[in-house]
């Protein structure tokens, strides 16, 4: 599902053909269209609740895969790169209709305060699972549809209230999903080595790596240095450059594709750190590799 040399689009952000409601960092994305199979990769900057109204949306990260069908939903935590495949089914005229709710930690914190729920520490671990969307949640989603026709005319506070309404509806409708939401506020401790190795080539920040490991940023940096004997930023950058150097020996892969495949933000930043380490721009390394190959083959 998806190519190895492909860019993971950071979400939430606007995509062609997709409607967005945005307010001070809170976002809801909605799409409804006739759709054949589409695939891609996304880096989730926020927690995401994906609800499918028509069609199929398949999500994969690591060794986990979830197939979300009509009137189903799944909750995904932030700081991960997902591969997706989505499409409309023949029996519904190939209509693909879904919404993605991006849930920031600040929103979850406010919800916890006004709902008087227990802290996440008292909740037993709940695995990620696909849940049914009941009639109440379907009515809620339908109430958002008109807003996508005039997103600029919707007041910020209304979007915030609608996001809180979503969480209260889940509170009453699905205890399993609610427990997952409570757990989002505090990741369980995970091996730093495991988190770093799994996300090394993803466009992920140190803050996100710290979150995924269940540590504060300062603790993550301190423990990382004890393990690797090097500052986290420096070690990760060097590993990415080593992978980029390997990929540059393949003539069929462009410098832009190499940049995307090794976790760098953009080509200019990639070129800058490359030249700082190797003394020449990536294009010079590419030309030298091609010349050496020609000499060997000649």
From TrEMBL:
Q: Name one Pfam family in it.
A: HTH_18
> Which Gene Ontology terms cover its molecular function?
DNA-binding transcription factor activity; sequence-specific DNA binding
Domain HTH araC/xylS-type, by residue range, is: 190-288
SUPFAM superfamilies xrefs: Homeodomain-like, Regulatory protein AraC
Q: Which UniProt keywords apply?
A: DNA-binding, Transcription, Transcription regulation
First and last residue of the signal peptide: none
By its UniProt entry, which InterPro entries does this protein fall under?
ExsA-like_N, Homeodomain-like_sf, HTH-like, HTH_AraC, Tscrpt_reg_AraC-type_HTH
Q: Which domain of life is it from?
A: Bacteria
Protein known as: HTH araC/xylS-type domain-containing protein
This protein's species is Cohnella abietis
